[in-house]
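Justification of resources, computational component.

The compute hours requested in this renewal are based largely on the per-chain cost of generating structure records like the one below. Each record pairs the submitted sequence with a full structure-token output. That output is archived, and it is also reused by downstream analysis tasks.
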Amino acid sequence: MSNALAIAATTATLRQVLLSGGIGRVTLLPPDAAGKNVTSDQVNLFLYQSSLDAAWRNQDVPGRAKSGEAVAPLPLNLYYLLTAYSGDPEDLRSHSLLGQAMRIFHDHPVLGAAEIASATAANLPGSDLQDQVERVRIVPQPLSTEEISKLWTAFQTPYRLSAAYLVSVVLLESQRPLLAPLPVLMRGEGDRGPTVLTSFPPLLEAVRPVTKLPGVRLGEELLLTGEHLATGTQVVFRGPRDFRPFTLLALRVVGDGEIVARLPGPDEPAGNPSKTSWPAGIYTAQVIARRPPELDLSSGELPFSLAPQIVVSPLSAPKGDVTVTVTCTPEVHPEQRVSLLFGDREVRASAHPAQTGTLSFNVAGVAAGTYVVRLRVDGVDSIPIDLSAAKPQFAADQTVVIS
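The structure output for this chain reads:
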């Protein structure tokens, strides 16, 4: 998403598009000021209105937070008025100039990330408009005679032939703190309803950790349930980023339509992908049924979460500003989005240009109390639950006591 410089970055990029297209001079003045003392050809680009984009108004941004946790971005539609001026007494030159500017926008309907970065590098170096998930598009905006009349009356200047454009969408990221509730420790059995059975192809109905926790970690087991899964089956895993599909052959049959697949551990010998090939994140599992000499039959893909496993230090500290060090398995890749969930507060990690397994976070103004610590990597949280306890409770080695 973009910061508060996004509106200025959009205007600067539009001006650069016009200049690169052959327009000699582009101003950004209100219409009453743009037309004064004109002695040469110029095009004026004026931002006269902004509005909220209804399609993005209540949407979560992908990969930034879980549903309902983050504040929705501020999505803006920007409305520009394009007007041409010249020193020609008959004003014919300005008509030609307006046509040239309109053709440039017609041939350039989308602002690319590289040209946004180039246009803002000098005057708006802190802008990150080029990194937002949605492209910024230029669309002609037809105006009725009544709208034109009201618009130029508001400008308090004589009417000139102009063209209006809608530029959208610009997403401004909220600065309100994110609240991340702790995971539910226990829940009842879900009402799945009737099961429809198929005949020969494998049917994959559910993929979940054997431990019934929210995610699985390296070296742990997944339970796959469905139909026609027991005979001659393989499991293919597909993951995020540069993870190559990995086929697991060593499966354990535990019942009718149930098999268990164990993920490779972080330090397994050769033959399994190394720990750097399994970054934390969202993966999918697919069952392949081998039916020689016929073709292999495959099920659909179902997602599961590969959670990071962490070691937290220190486990106790005085109140105030606290520095928390987290050792993470698997290691975090440079392009992954990482944050520390300290109780119900989120502290984002600083940029890590190299792959690393150790991260430090500064948590400001911590009051006395007991705080559960989780690491969120690409939207998947570490699991702070003590599996050895008689009843569900949070693990002591992932809890920081502030006194």
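The chain has five helices and 24 strands. The first strand starts at residue 26 and ends at 27.
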